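quick one before i forget lol
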Amino acid sequence: MKTTIKEAKNYLNQEVTIGGWLHNKRSSGKIAFLQLRDGTGFMQGVVVKAEVSEDTFQLAKNITQESSLFVTGVITEDTRSDLGYEMQVKSIEVIDEAHDYPITPKNHGTEFLMDHRHLWLRSKKQHAVMKIRNEIIRATYEFFNNNGFTKIDPPILTASAPEGTSELFHTKYFDEDAFLSQSGQLYMEAAAMAHGKVFSFGPTFRAEKSKTRRHLIEFWMIEPEMAFYNHDDSLEVQEQYVTHIVQSVLKNCTIELKTLERDTEKLAKVATPFPRISYDDAVTFLKEEGFDDIEWGEDFGAPHETAIANHYDLPVFITNYPTKIKPFYMQPNPENEDTVLCADLIAPEGYGEIIGGSERINDLALMEQRINEHELDAESYSYYLDLRKYGSVPHSGFGLGLERAVAWISGVEHVRETSPFPRLLNRLYP
C-alpha cells in the first residue's frame, strides 16, 4: 500500500510504502534512524539490523542526504514524535542517489542559503513557513467566500499608478508606456461597483530601493473592496479577517508552529475587536515615550510602529493619518479636513504594518481635484473617474501584504523567508 507521511497515521500497525527523500540520518552499530520527508511532512524511519537484510542495513547506514527513496515498513505508534508515529523499516529502494548536497546540517550564511533557495526550501523550518503561508491563503479564500465576496483578478500590466509612479517598474507595452502593478485597488473599486463586495489576490511590485527585513520587491496582496461600506465597517472586516487567518493557522499548523518554535500564546490572544489609536494620539504617545524626532505630519518609521504595537501587545489600528502623507484617493475626515479616513494595522512583536486601508473618495469633483493636486495624468484615470460619474456610492477597502502576515504569524525575522523565491534589491536569482 502506497501512502504519504501525512496519511500514514491511517495505517497503524500496517505495512506501507512511502516515496520520499532522506533529510538526515544517524546510526549506531545495530540501529539506524532515517529522517524522511516527502513533501507532506517529516517522519522517522527506524532500521534495526537484526530485523532486515544485511544489504538493507548497510544501505541505511551509507545512503546520502537528499537521495530519493521508496521506503517500505510498518507504521507504529511513537509518543515522542510530533506526528505520534514512525516507521519500522523493512526495505529501501534507492531512486536516485544524491552526491555532495550543498546544504549540510551545519550552519550556513544567509547569502549562501539564498543562492541555494531552490534547495533551502526543503529544510524543515522553510517547509513549515511555506505550509503556514499556504494555510493563510486557504483561510483567506474561506473567509471571503463565506462572507459574500467575489474574487476578481486585476491586471498586472497597467497604464497608471494608484500611489504615484516613483516606485513603479516601467516597461513598454508595444508603443505605449506601461507599469507592473503596485496594487490592484483601482480596478477592484470598479469591480465593487459591479459585484458589491470583491477581493483580489495576486502579485504586486514596488521598485523601492529598500533593504529592510520588512520589504520585498515582488510580493502578494489580498485586496478587498466593498460598496456601501464606510471606514468603520471596513475596520470590522479587517479585524475579523485577520483573526480568522490567525485562528486557522493555530488550528491547522500545530506541527509547523512547533517546528518554528513560535510562541503560540501570543497568537492565541488575537481576537476582535482590535485596539485603535488616532494618528494625533499616536504622535503624543511617541513623544511621551521619548521619540522627540517625530512631528505631526510625518509618517511613522519602524521604531515608532513597534513602540505603539508593543504598548498594546495586539494588532493595533492607527487611524486618520494626515492627508499630505497618504494617497490621493482617500476620503477626508469630516472631523478634521487635514486628515483622512484611513488606518494602518500594525502587527505586534515588531512586524510592522500588515494592512493599509481607507474609505475612498466618492465625490467626482473632489477626486478630480486630488488627481490635479498630485499632478497625475487625468486621462489615464478617466475610467476611475467614471466610477464617480455613474452611480457613485460610499465605499472602502484595504490591502494585506501576504509575506508580512506570514512573517508575523510564523515568527520568522525576515520576509525573505516567507516568499518561495524572494525578489530583493540585489537578488533576481534563483
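fyi The domain at 2-96 is CATH 2.40.50.140 (OB fold (Dihydrolipoamide Acetyltransferase, E2P)).
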